[in-house]
Structure formats: C-alpha cells, structure tokens
Write a structure and sequence with these properties.
The complex is a heterodimer of chains A (about 775) and B (about 300).
Chain A lengths: L1 H25 L2 H8 L5 E4 L2 E4 L4 H6 L7 H4 L34 H4 L4 H5 L7 H6 L1 H5 L6 H4 L5 H7 L7 H4 L14 H9 L3 H9 L1 H7 L8 H5 L19 H9 L4 H5 L7 H7 L1 H8 L8 H5 L19 H5 L6 H9 L2 H5 L7 H4 L9 H4 L3 H8 L5 E4 L2 E4 L4 H6 L7 H4 L24 H9 L1 H7 L8 H5 L19 H6 L19 H7 L1 H7 L9 H5 L19 H5 L4 H7 L18 H4 L11 H4 L11 H7 L3 H7 L8 H5 L19 H6 L25 H57 L1
Antiparallel strand pairs in A: 1-2, 3-4
Chain B lengths: L9 E5 L5 E5 L7 E3 L3 H25 L4 H10 L2 H31 L4 H6 L8 H14 L13 H25 L1 H6 L5 H31 L9 H4 L1 E3 H7 L1 H10 L6 E2 L4 H32 L2
Antiparallel strand pairs in B: 1-2, 3-4, 3-5
Classes of the chains: A mainly alpha (about 775), B mainly alpha (about 300).
C-alpha cells in the first residue's frame, strides 16, 4: 500500500516537472528570436518608431550570450501580446547583477543615460574592448570641436603610437562609471598634469602665475589657459598656441595694454607687446621669421615665471646675464670690444648687467652708446628754475648734483634710476615716469607693496608715502649715516611727521593711544634712544618693520597679537623663552580664550620700566583685566590695601606669581608651589616659614564656602558692633530730649533767681 | 554787680595741700572740687593722642580705596609715615596700658584693699547699684522719675573704662600679630590666623572709633548740660555747683563724712582752661571728622 502511494507520488511529481519545464521551454531564447530576429519589427513609443530587432549572432557573441532573455527581462509575461501593456516594457534592471551605485554619481547618469547607451543592450562586449578605443568612442557623442580636437592633440598621437598618454578617462575622474564634467579645482588639474609633467607643474606652482592661482586670483592662468584642454599640441607644432611664433600673442592675450592684467602689474613697464615687436628680438621673430629669436618665454621662461624682484627669477639682476647668454653665448667678448673697459674705469663700482644698457622689451637701445652721462643730464637740471607742471602744480626739476654726489647713490648715474629715457623723445627724459626703486631694491619694494603704506599708495591715496618720502630723493643716505632721516635716532621724528595729531596719516589723530610719537618719547624705548643715547633701543621700525607696516589687526602684521611676542623677542629673546614655558603661552595653554601677549601688560607706545610706580600700580589693568575676581580680593588684603595707598614696593601679582614665567600654583615649578612658596615670600619677609605662608593673600570674608572662619569672624564682629551701637544709639536718643528739657528748666530757674536778685538789688538802691 | 562787692561774704577753705581757697557760698562756681588727679589727666591725654593717631592712620589703611583717606595719607606723608605713626601710637598705647595696670597695684600698696577696689563705692567694676541706676536713668529719660543720684562713676563711664581695657587688649594683641606675623607663625600659629586677626583688629577698631567718637563724645561732652565740652579731664576739677548737680550721691557721701573740703581746689587758671578748651576742641573735631569720613566710606564702599 505504502509502495503504491509512493509510486503515485513519483508519477505525479514527474508530470508536474514536465509541465513546469514545458512552460520555461516556451520562453527560451529561440522562442523570443522567432519574432525578434525580424529586422522590420518595430513598435512605437512616445510617438517614435523603435526597432525591436535583435541580431541573434551578435547577441550570442556578447558576454551575455549565454544568458536567457528572461534572466534580464524579468517579470516577463508571455501571455500578453505585446508582452505588457503600457510604457517601459521589460525595462532591464542591470543592478540586479551589477553594482551600479558608483555610476549614479556620474554626469552621464544625471543626464539620463543608462547602461545600454554605452554598452548596447544585446551586443555587450568585454569592458577592455570598449576601453581600447575609448577616445573614439567618446566623440561619438561628444561632437563639439573642443573635444573632437583631442584627436589632433599630442596626447592622442601618442596613444595612436601605443605610447602611454592620457585618455578621456584619465582626466575625467579615471573611471568609466564615475565620469565628471571637467570642473577641476586647480589642484586637481595640476595633479592630473603632474602625473606625467612633474617638473613643469612644480615650476609653475612656484611661479608668479602659480602663486596667483593658489591665491584664487581670477585672472591667474592655469595649464589649460596656454595649453588647451583637449587640443593640447606640442610646442613644435606650428598650429600650437605655444609654438614660438605664437608666444607673443599667447602672452599678449593677458599682457597687452588695456587688459585687466596689465593694470595689475607693479613693474613699470608699458606697451610690452608694442615695445617687443619693435625690439631686435621682435623684429627678428615677426618680420624676419627667425624662430631662434627670443620670445617672452626665452627670457621669462615658460613655467617658472617670477617677478624680477625674486632672486630666483630668470630676469633678476643677478641672473639676467645667464638668461641672455642662453643665446648670446659669446657676448662678453663682443662687449669687451665695444666698451673697451671704459665703463669699468669710470665707474668701477657700477658693473652693469645686460638690462642696464639694453632695456628689457626694447633691447635695441643702448644708453651708453648715446653718452647719457650725469653731465648730460645736468646741462638742463642744474637750472634752478627748471620746472614742469603736474596737475596744475609747479614741480621743480632742479637737481643739486652735490646732493647726489654725497649720497648713497653717488656711484650710480642718473639713468640707472631714471631708466625710461628714450632717444625717440626730446628731451630724452620727458615722460620717463617715476623712478622704480624695485629695479635694485626689489625685496624692500615687495614688502612695501604689502604694507598699509603700499596698499594706500597703490589705491591712489595722496597722503600715502612712497620711497622718497622717507629716504629722500637725490640726497639719499644709508641708514647708518647719522644725518639720514632713516637713522635710528631720527626715526621717531620721521614717522612722526605724518603720525601726529593733524598729520598726514589717516589714523594719527584717531588712535586710542593719543599722540603716538610723544608717547613713544616718554616710553622706556624712547627714553633709551633719546635720553640715554642707546642705539640698540627699539624705534618705530624695529616693531613695525621698516617697509612692511601693517595695522595690528592684520594677521601678517609684526605687531599682531599672534606675532608681537616674536617681534619683541628680536631684542628680548630671553623673556620670550621664559614666556613660552608659562601658562600664558599658547604653546602651553590650548584655549579658545584670548591669552595675554606682551602688549597686554606692557603698553606699546607708552611702554614703561617695570620697576616704576606707574607700571607697578597698574595691576588692575594688567592682571585684573582677565583675573578680575582674584585681583579684587588681593585689594582686600594687606598687600592690596597698602598698594592702594601708593606703596610701590609692596608685593604685586607678579612678585609672587612670577611675570613671564608665571605658572598655576599647583604646578611644582610655580613660584607659589608647596616647594617654592616659602622662598618666594622670603624675598620680602626674610623670616618667612612654612606656617607664615599659610596667610591667605586673596582672602575675603564675603565667601562663606571658601573661608568660613573669616566669614563668621566678620559677622561675629559685625553683630557686636551693631548691638553696641543700637544700644547706645537708643540710650542717646532717649537722653537728648530729657537733658534738653532739664536744661531749659534749669535756665528758667536761674533767670528767676537772677531776676529776683536784681529786684532786691534795685529796691536796695 | 561785681565780684568785689561780695568779698566780705567769702568763705575760706583749706585744701588737702594746705592752700587756702576762698569762694562765695552763694556762688559756688568759684569753689572747685577735684575729680581727676594729675596722673589720670596725663594718662587721658596719652590716650587721646594715641587713640586719635591710631584711628586716623588705621582708617587710612582700612579704607585705602577711598579717595579722602588716600588724600589724608598723602597729607601725612604717605603710607610709610602713616604706618610709622600707627606703630608709634601703638607703643604709647601699650605704655599707658602698662602704666595703668601698674597704678592699680600701686593703689593696693597705698592701702586700698582689693575688696574696696572691686566692690567699694568708687569702684570701676559694675555692681548692683549700677543696675539700679540704669533702671532709674531709663525712667528719668522717659519722664517717669527724677534724675538718679549718680556717684563717682556712672554706669556708662564704667562701660567706657572697660571698653578701653578690652579694646586695648584685643586690638593690641591682634595688632602685634599683624606687626610681627613671621615671629608669631614661627611659634606655630597658622598663617590663616593673620587673616582672622586682620578682621578682628579692623572691626574692633571700627567699634572703638565709632563708639568713642559718637557715644562717648555725647555722654561726656555733647549732652546739653555739658555742651560743647566738659574740660574736667584736662583741668581735673569742676565747680562745686556743677559737682552737686552732676554727682549728688558722691557729694552727699563726702559732705556727710566731712571729707568734701579735702577735695576743694582752686579754680583752674585761665591759661589752663583755655589750653584745655583748645586741645579739647581739636580732639573733638578730629574725632568727629574721622567718624564722618568713616560713615562716608562705609556708604561709598558698601553701596
């Protein structure tokens, strides 16, 4: 019976299996292709006719060739014809098998492209197949000229030759599925280029351009500006922007007159392109087609462009000869013939560099040939009445050559500074513009340009000082000359010329410290300089720097809260070393609160000797500014009370706690630690002992929790006082009216007696 | 009417020193009764000068944050001078305290028994009679009885005496602690005791100063029957008339025992009287000014 039952079960199961298999057999690929191999089979979606043809052979070759249709087209219902009503019939979800999360971040996904758009739906190939020709593949869609020109680029050419070279993917985020639009942050762009072009990118980053870029200046160029993004060509390619013939145009894009960039440059060079095209180099290149002629990048270099003030710059005075000699190898010999050693004989200290004679950008003109000597200039400028009119004001052009001959520049000739003279003009010096001190004093001018003075000058503030306002013009003297306005002893008066009440300087009269220079003269620094004659004393420029003065609020300022300690330490190094170990130092205390710096206890312009009355009596404004409560309680105890009466010698905060080396009392190194406190008190109390130091120097009888015995003593005494006064107050109040009444009565009696006596006396007479 | 008119009616007395004193019985103003001996008068001058100095220089440091006291300190020559004056006056105080204590023993030597000194009619120590007089005084104040018949020392005078006695000890010892903190702590006293001593010294001094310059001044000088001042502590004597009114019980006892005449002295010389008045006025003014400055400072500090 049981066997029979089992048999039935098996038979039933077999039928079921055959039935189910039959159903799936119905959905086999052949069944699908029966219809879909018809290449005329179409359907309409959203009004568009779409093919439903599937190439059976290509499908079989694809990597999905061994899959059944229904493995991708799930939810397939064969009974329906067409297989399902509505839209999106059998939309295949690749994510059933493939991880597509990363793709969702790509720009392609955001634009609505799906897997099939790149991989095709039924002819999917190995990824490597697709990647092999990725650049060709991308331009099937990206047809804009910019991208298409990638096929003309040096990168593409190299790819063709099978060399390593970047493909689309290398720049566009590296992955086929996470492609991003080319909005690189500058660092990313550099990093991409840097993978192959290490040296140029490094040079660029150190260059004027690179630094401007890292400061996010809008006008700063990046790799793409000169090299294009897709159509990157070799500099040897004549159609390249960086081909030697095209360089002046490329640089000129920004550096020609009238561009935003041209208004930025702080070098006194105008008409750069124009001058270049007229120069011997420009003429050679542009008129004679000599591609060996020097172009912008020959002198400035292409990637490591630096301002001429920079000591590493190819056009720095120190390097310019080497730069020129890239081409002009034998130039020294030539020049020996031309100069005949004459200049060295005349001006032994003034060994010229190329640009002294051959003006940059105009290298045809040679001054010495024209014999522009000082005597030549003085033929006109010795005339005391020589003048010109600027903005309606008469400006004297008289030059006292004696001033010059005694000055620090006595070895220089006029045209060393007044370099923009031109034979084309009559007189040669007309409109030669202002002297650019940075030609020689590049570092100082660079600093100056960053300073408040420089910024205001650049902004056209007529009150802002320029080099000559402090240094003088033709009579310029070195700062170690006692007669120089920049000699240390003369500095306060020099700065005070503008920084006084009603002075030229904007802030002079509104400064919270009042008259700066007057205050300085009363300060320990000022007295040291002017009274004690100490030349090591700090003057204005020692704290504020000579050229890079900035307001204290500026983070770059030498007197900024964060920098002032280091500025003071230029002289007071020992103090800074102590301070750096103290609790007030940011190196020791990490806090959001503001820590005190030098200036908070020692004033800036009114800085005083710390052993003088005024300083020592100022602890309320020094320590008390932050430690309010503890300073208040100090004044409740003997030390504080005597201090208030004007005692200077009585212990102040720093006499016990230390000043620059201050530490919290719980630290063993503190002057008030258990180990050190007896010794500290001995400074004033030679008999100090372990019990003696138990005296509470900050005690208050108002704090019940901290000092209960003082609190109760005080209130005990107060009650005694109040009760005594209450008792005797009442006693007096009661006594007074009674005694007054008695006195009145008494006086009345006296009067009566007196009157009676008078009466008897009168009757007696 | 002149004094000469009454010369026939003058009475003659011989005082304890054998000097003849004459005065009119009718005008008892001319006869003076000795209240304080020279020793006591000199001592009180010591107390006045040292106490005024101590209170002024002490308040300067107690209220060192107040402008008037800082000004005062500057006038006196700065905190160093005031500090010196304070300590110098302290030495005087210790001096008179020692002298007075010594004099008590001398009295004993001179024949007074301690029993008499502590319980006798003229004792400084409060006794039952003082409580009775206090009760009578309050009744008198309220108009419920006559003025009590006060003896040699009234209860408020006894309070004054012991207030000084107690004050000198407390302020004196706490002051020594503050003067020589290193010495006292080296004996084993904790440093915090100096803080406690500061409070006690300062507040006890405030009590003493406040009490003397208001209560003592009123009780002794400004009460209407003595106003503007009682010079007896400087001249040593008061008129018989005043004596009778002010100390009726003492007068009675002396009269009955016949000793009254032993206390008769000549009226103080004009020069002495004038000097007393000037000295008293100055002292009173200093005291009153000080107490006003204290009140001002307390209002200023604890507003």
């Amino acid at each position: 019976m049981a066997i029979k039952q089992t048999f039935h079960n098996i038979v039933r199961g077999t039928f079921l299996f055959i039935f189910v298999s039959g159903m799936s057999l119905f959905a086999q690929n052949e069944d699908c292709l029966e219809c879909h191999s018809d290449d005329s089979m179409t359907y309409e979606r959203n009004g568009k006719e779409m093919s439903l043809f599937i190439h059976a052979d290509k499908f079989a070759e694809s990597i999905h060739g061994e899959l059944e249709c229904v493995e991708c087209h799930v939810d397939f219902d064969p009974a329906e014809e067409p297989h399902r009503e509505g839209t999106n019939i059998y939309k295949v979800d690749c994510s059933n098998c493939h991880d597509v999360e990363a793709y969702k971040e790509s720009v392609h996904f955001q634009k609505g492209l799906n897997c099939a758009d790149c991989h095709s739906s039924h002819e999917i190939k190995e990824t490597s197949e697709l990647k092999k020709n990725i650049e060709q593949f991308c331009i099937t869609c990206h047809k804009n000229a910019n991208v298409k020109n990638f096929t003309k680029s040096v990168h593409f050419a190299k790819l063709k030759e099978g060399e390593t070279s970047p493909t689309c993917l290398d720049c566009h985020n590296g992955s086929t599925h996470q492609i991003q639009p080319a909005k690189f942050s500058e660092n990313e762009l550099h990093d991409i280029c840097r993978t192959c072009h290490k040296v140029p990118v490094a040079n660029f980053e150190n260059s004027l351009h690179g630094k401007a870029l890292s400061k996010q200046k809008v006008m700063a160029p990046n790799c793409i500006t000169c090299h294009n993004s897709h159509d990157i060509r070799s500099g040897k390619d004549q159609s390249s922007k960086t081909y030697v013939m095209n360089i002046p145009k490329l640089c000129g894009n920004c550096h020609k007159d009238g561009t935003d960039v041209s208004t930025l440059k702080n070098i006194d060079q105008r008409h750069i392109l124009e001058n270049y095209s007229e120069s011997i180099h420009g003429e050679g290149l542009l008129k004679k087609g000599l591609i060996v002629s020097a172009v912008c990048t020959s002198c400035h270099f292409s990637h490591s462009i630096l301002p001429h003030e920079d000591i590493n710059s190819s056009i720095n005075r120190k390097n310019i000869a080497n730069t020129c000699m890239q081409c002009h190898q034998q130039i020294e010999k030539v020049h020996q013939q031309v100069i005949n050693g004459e200049l060295w004989e005349k001006n032994p200290n003034s060994i010229p560099v190329c640009i002294d004679c051959h003006q940059p950008h105009q290298v045809r003109r040679v001054f010495y040939e024209q014999d522009y000597t000082n005597d030549y200039c003085m033929t006109c400028h010795k005339d005391q009445n020589l003048s010109k009119v600027v903005n309606g004001e008469k400006v004297s052009l008289y030059v006292n050559i004696d001033d010059h001959n005694n000055s620090a520049h006595k070895e220089k000739t006029c045209i060393n500074c007044h370099s923009n003279v031109s034979t084309a003009r009559k007189p040669v010096c007309i409109n030669s513009g202002k002297v650019d001190c940075s030609t020689c004093h590049a570092g100082q001018v660079d600093d100056f340009n960053l300073s408040t003075h420089g910024i205001k000058l650049a902004a056209g503030d007529k009150h802002a000082p320029e080099c000559i306002d402090c240094h003088g013009k033709h009579n310029i003297l070195k700062k170690d000359n006692t007669a120089a306005p920049t000699f240390a002893r003369n500095i306060p008066n020099l700065c005070g010329k503008c920084h006084k009440a009603d002075g030229r300087a904007e802030k002079a009269s509104s400064t919270p410290e009042g008259s700066i220079v007057e205050n300085y003269k009363m300060s320990i620094h000022g007295k040291g300089l002017l009274e004690s004659g100490l030349m090591v004393t700090a003057t204005c420029v020692d704290c504020h720097t000579a050229h890079k003065e900035l307001p204290a609020s500026d983070l770059m300022s030498s007197v900024n809260q964060h920098n002032v300690a280091n500025t003071c330490a230029k002289c007071h190094l020992g103090i800074l070393e102590k301070f750096n170990k103290s609790i007030h130092s940011p190196l020791v205390t990490k806090t959001d609160k503001e820590l005190p710096g030098c200036r908070d206890c020692h004033k800036s312009h009114t800085i005083e000797r710390t052993d003088l009355d005024d300083f020592r009596q100022g602890i309320y404004t020094q320590c008390g500014r932050c430690h309010e409560e503890v300073t208040a309680t100090y004044f409740e105890t003997f030390h504080g009370k005597v201090s208030k009466l004007g005692s200077v010698k009585t212990a102040k905060c720093y006499d016990c706690h230390g000043s620059h080396d201050i530490l919290p009392t719980y630290m063993p190194e503190s002057k008030l630690s258990r180990e050190n406190v007896v010794e500290t008190c001995k400074t004033c109390h030679p008999q100090s002992n372990k019990k003696f130091v138990g005296y509470l120097t900050h005690a208050t009888h108002h704090d019940k929790d901290k000092y209960p015995f003082l609190y109760y003593t005080f209130w005990g005494m107060t009650i005694l006082l109040l009760s005594t006064f209450t008792f005797f107050g009442l006693h007096t109040l009661l006594w007074l009216p009674r005694a007054l009444a008695e006195k009145k009565k008494h006086n009345k009696q006296k009067k009566q007696i007196a009157a009676r006596k008078e009466g008897t006396d009168d009757s007696g007479e | 009417m002149t004094q000469e008119n009454n010369t026939q009616e003058n009475l003659k007395y011989t005082d304890a020193l054998g000097n003849t004193i004459s005065g009119s019985e009718e005008n008892e103003k001319d006869i003076h009764v000795r209240r304080f001996d020279t020793y006591t008068r000199v001592m009180h001058i010591m107390i006045i000068t040292s106490f005024l100095t101590l209170s002024v220089t002490g308040m300067i440091i107690k209220f060192s944050g107040v402008g008037v006291f800082q000004f005062l300190s500057d006038i006196l020559g700065g905190y160093k001078v005031t500090g010196f004056l304070h300590r110098f006056a302290a030495i005087i105080t210790f001096g008179y305290f020692a002298l007075h204590t010594g004099s008590l023993f001398k009295k004993k030597k001179d024949g007074h028994t301690f029993k008499y000194m502590f319980t006798g009619e003229n004792t400084m120590v409060p006794r039952k009679q003082d409580a009775i007089e206090f009760y009578q005084t309050i009744k008198w104040f309220l108009g419920l009885g006559p003025r009590p018949e006060y003896g040699r020392w009234t209860y408020w005078e006894k309070f004054d005496y012991f207030a000084v006695f107690w004050g000198v000890m407390v302020i004196g010892f706490s002051g020594l602690l503050l003067w020589f903190p290193a010495f006292f702590t080296s004996l084993g006293l904790p440093g915090e005791v100096i803080n406690v001593a500061t409070i006690i010294h300062s507040d006890e001094a405030l009590l003493a100063t406040g009490f003397i310059f208001t209560v003592h001044f009123f009780n002794t000088h400004f009460r209407p029957d003595k106003f503007p001042m009682d010079t007896v502590i400087f001249t040593g004597s008061m008129s018989l008339e005043e004596f009778k009114e002010d100390r009726p019980r003492q007068y009675k006892i002396l009269k009955e025992s016949g000793e009254l005449e032993n206390y008769f002295v000549a009226a103080p010389k004009k020069g002495l009287l004038r000097a007393s008045r000037i000295f008293g006025t100055v002292a009173l003014l200093i005291g009153l000014t000080t107490v006003l400055m204290i009140i001002y400072s307390m209002l200023f500090l604890y507003q």
